[in-house]
Amino acid sequence: MQRSRYLRDMRYQSLSSDLYKRNRANFMAQMKPRSIAVFFSNDIYPTSADGTLPFKQASDILWLTGVDQENTVLVLFPDAHNPADREILFSTETNEELAIWEGAKLNKKQATEATGIANIQWTPGFERTFHRLMAEADALYLNDNPHARAKITVETRTARENAALREKYPGKSNARRPFYSACERSSRRRRWNKCSALVTSQKRGLSGCCNS
User: Fold this and answer.
1) Can you tell me the distance from the alpha carbon of 70 to that of 29, in angstroms, rounded to the nearest whole number?
2) How deeply is 69 buried, as exposed, middle or buried, from its count of CB atoms within 10 A (0-12, 13-18, 19+)?
3) Total structural domains in the chain?
4) Alpha-carbon gap, residue 209 to 194, rounded angstroms
5) CATH code for the domain of 76
6) pLDDT, tens digit, for every residue of 180-198?
7) What global pTM score does this model have?
8) pLDDT in tens, 106-129
9) Is the residue at 14 inside a domain?
């Protein structure tokens, strides 16, 4: 367990949760009233037999939370009736055996310290909580890849989850992502500047966070 934590910490130096709080605040300031945004981590991709590729986190959820582990979901709902529901992070429930076989994961206290998000829940509770929140919402932001030249041969977790949410909530899942609204250029410029600071500070691990 100590070796797994050591290897994770050696990838790059952790940054203050204040950075991620500001990133989320900038994003939520561009959201429509009574709207929800949801972000999913990447999958761990298999190679052969029981082998896997090294994990590479989805850029947007990394930029908004700093969490660099799989099976993570971020929900942003700034107009939620309950203030505790305005930022929720869903994460893998960790234990000593999981840490030995898969590496150390964040517990709830560590996740709050790293992200500045008070409401940390285990990922299996996502669907139930999200369905409850959608009853309050008028619009849903889904984190699509808008790159016209992107050649997608392997479905990402984001694409898979987005398809399921569009089917389940067909009348609400048509909001455009704020990063690609009328504020696109200024928003992406701020994102690039912050990503540059991350790369400078962390050297590795976040080097892909500026990629669209």
Assistant:
1) 27
2) buried
3) 1
4) 10
5) 3.40.350.10
6) 333 333 344 444 444 434 4
7) 0.75
8) 889 999 999 999 999 999 999 999
9) no
